[in-house]
Amino acid sequence: MGLPRRAGDPAELRKSLKPLLEKRRRARINESLSQLKGLILPLLGRESSRYSKLEKADILEMTVRFLQELPASSGPTAAPTPSDSYREGYRACLARLARVLPTCRVLEPAVSARLLEHLRRRAASATSDGGRSGDPCGPPAPSPPPAPSPSPPEPPRNSGLWRPW
Questions:
Q1: How far lies 56's CA from each of 40, 82, 90, in Å?
Q2: Is residue 89 packed enough to be buried (19+ CB in 10 Å), middle (13-18) or exposed (0-12)?
Q3: Residues 164, 93: contact at Cβ < 8 Å?
Q4: pLDDT band at 112, cuts 50/70/90?
Q5: Which of 31, 55, 95, 96 would bridge 136 by S-S if both were Cys, CB 3.0 to 4.6 A apart?
């Protein structure tokens, strides 16, 4: 005849906690997928309201496709300096912001245009040739000469590569 189990038996405790832990794990996964969906749809230029019922696999596939299509570094060339990498990242962020900012309507159009223009001038002043060659943002539109502004901060020297995103 077996002895009755005590209430604090580790095996029984594990049995009772397992469903709760699984529920929490699934909730974390679902929350992360929801955040990923909220991040990826605007980057793909899609309206969130039209894609309210996406399957989890669809969200992951869209994210993988987006990440695969990101512009890779300029191919197999000499290793870029941290400063070059910083400028490249700055321009890539600016290009993405130029695509996303008008569609999200967080700022008034005039403020949004001024912000983008300011960031384009900063990107242009950060390159030695004035930002004209290979700049995905295009040349800045003609405007009155701006007050001198400091160039974007240089990346930290001792911590390897630093990306602005």
A1: 13, 37, 32
A2: middle
A3: yes
A4: confident
A5: 95
